[in-house]
Amino acid sequence: MKKVTAAFLVLILVGFIFNVFVGCAKSRKGRKLPINVAGIELEVELAITPEELSTGLMYRDRLDDNQGMLFVFSEERILSFWMKDTRVPLSIAFIKANGRIIQIESMKPYSLDSHVSKEMVKYALEMKDGWFANHKVKEGDIVKIPPIMN
Predict the structure, then answer these.
(1) Please, where are the H alpha helices in 87-148?
(2) Which of 43, 44, 68, 105 is 20 to 30 A from 33 in CA distance terms?
(3) Distances, alpha carbon 33 to alpha carbons 38, 81, 98, 150, in Å
(4) Can you tell me whether residue 107 is helix, strand or coil?
(5) Which helix (H) or strand (E) holds 27?
(6) Distance (Å, rounded) from C-alpha 129 to C-alpha 80?
(7) 75 near 60, Cβ under 8 Å?
C-alpha cells in the first residue's frame, strides 16, 4: 500500500511540475492583440503586467517580419527602453494615447543606451529592426489599438 501511495504522490508531483513548465512556456509568448499600423494589419504580443513590461522581447533568438510587442501603460508618461539581454535588433515606435506615432528609433542588441520618448506616450511598439522604414511607416502615422482589458 505504501508503494502505491508513494507512486501516486510522485505522479501528482510530476504532473504539477509539468503544468508549471507548460504554463511558463505559454506565458512567455503572452496575450496577442490585432492592431492596425498605418493601414497594415498585425497581431502583436502584449506587455501589460510589470513582469511583461520589464522583460519585453529579451532572450528571444529571432523575431519574424511581422512579429512585435505592444507595451501598454496605464497613462501617458515619458518612456525609456534599453536592449539589455535582447538578442535581436529592434525598432521602437513611441505612440500617444490617440494612436499617433511621435518617434521611431532603431535599437542595437545588448545595448545599454536609453531610448527615451521625447513626449509623454501611452504605448511603445517594438518590431524587427527596419520594419517601420520597410513598410513606410513614419512619425505622424496612426496606430489603431482596440480597447485592452488588463
Answers:
(1) 131-134
(2) 105
(3) 16, 21, 17, 12
(4) strand
(5) helix 2-29
(6) 17
(7) no
What's the Cα-to-Cα distance from 24 to each of 2, 19, 69, rounded to whole Å?
Answer: 33, 8, 18
Cell 522581447 found at: 57
Q: What is the pTM of this model?
A: 0.80
4-57 pLDDT, tens per residue? 555 554 445 444 444 444 444 344 457 999 999 999 999 999 999 999 999 999
- The dotted CATH code for 31-144 is 2.60.120.1140
Read off the C-alpha cell for 14: 510530476
Instruction: Return the closest-CA partner of residue 124 out of 52, 41, 29.
Output: 52
Cross-strand pairs, 34: 43
Closest CA to 145 of 37, 45, 50: 37
**Domain residue spans in the chain?**
1-30, 31-144
Could you report the per-residue pLDDT of 131-140, keeping only the tens digit for each?
A: 999 999 999 9
Residue 141, SS3? coil
Q: What is the CA radius of gyration of the chain?
A: 19
Distance CA 56, CA 7 (A): 40
